[in-house]
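Researcher: If only I could read backbone structure tokens as easily as an amino acid sequence. Walk me, if you will, through where the backbone shape changes along the chain. I have put the entry right below:
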Amino acid sequence: MSHRLVQKDQDAIVGSGVMERDTIVALSTPPGESAIAVVRLSGPQALQIVAQMAPGTEKIPSHRLHRCILRGQDGNAIDEVVLAIMRAPSSYTGEDMVEIFCHGGYQVVTDIISEVTRLGARGAGHGEFTKRAFLNGKMDLSQAEAVADLISAETRLQRIVALEQLEGTLSKRTSSIERRLLDVLALVEVSIDFSEEDVPVYEPEELIGELRKVEGELEELLSMESAGERLKNGIRVTILGPRNAGKSSLYNALLGEERAIVSSIPGTTRDILRERIHIGGFTYFLEDTAGLADTGCEIEAKGISKGKEAARRAEAILFVIDGSERIDRGILEEIDSYRNKKVIIVINKKDLGIRVDLKELQGRFDGMRTVEVSAKTGEGLETLREALFELTAREGLGKVTEGRLVINSRQGNALRKAKEAVNRAVEEIRRGAPSEIVSIEVKQAIDSCGEVTGRSVSEDLLETIFSRFCIGK
């Protein structure tokens, strides 16, 4: 696989052989029985292939629906379908496209795809339709990534933000930065081209001022990366605590269903259980772990070790204690060991009466919030959810809702490289470096911004990004 940069110029892409010129097909709806399934074709032979299965359809105008019967090689009917014809370049991919709305039975879909591939199409790879849309200039790379985010959105907030990205919010901000950098580059390169002529050279402080403004815009975008990663990838929370403190009961209560086995027998939970919940538009991955205890059981000891390791990797910990009993000193020391983490001390079994000295507990762990709950009755659970959200996502929510913009780690890395190049350019100007050196750094900043939009990106990176998409999109 080549590492050359793919420039967003259609003729260059086609000429280099980067863009495939064959026709692809895939099921774009989930497999299995359904009322309707959608089989999608894209490529130069899409209309001709369908016309061989339903003669006359090649004459259908673009963006029209047409009801017909698709037939196989033997002339027998496969299914009565509705075709959506979209001629290039006015289609999702920029190529000729046909979407076949057929009955959603397994055999119907299988026979249609088999006949289409027999007539010359090939099965599409992951995200190949959207990749073609990107290569054909129908969207930039940040918008293409937003397509995958929109498909995987589990909450209303995730959907809203992904749709904003798809409509070009990040693209516009990044393109604006690129234009400012191009203006700076023009001034620098004029001084190179006319260095021996009577043409005014740029004012260093004026140029530094412009670069500092760009740096501020890049920093503002980068401030949204952390929230973006949480919104996109979720927040990992480990439930930790001693045996029989009610960790599994709390886990089930937060999920709203019984997923963990609850028993009065010590050490019931041996392995880590994971499930997701949604709070404030963010996805939380809850982990229920084995109860902390000194044990001679090798299996239980391994479970405890795995739980502690999970807690070290988690973004937040819900440390559950039995509020109806006094706290063992060893448990207090265990809580102490997580002072560098985001921790909520959950005082469970409120329904049995609280015997824990709350003032002493809060005084010892003044940096940690304590929440009283009853996993059995549900009392205090909403307060716990609010506390968890406040601890992990409240600040990020403000950034997300204010700018309707999130930055993923790939985009963040590109923007950081741009900012570093801008800083180097400022330092080169200050030390009186030749304009050629300053020009190199400004160009590097421009190219790094181009990685966000896909104006300049390696083929390997494209393969990595689109391999995460579902087939058929």
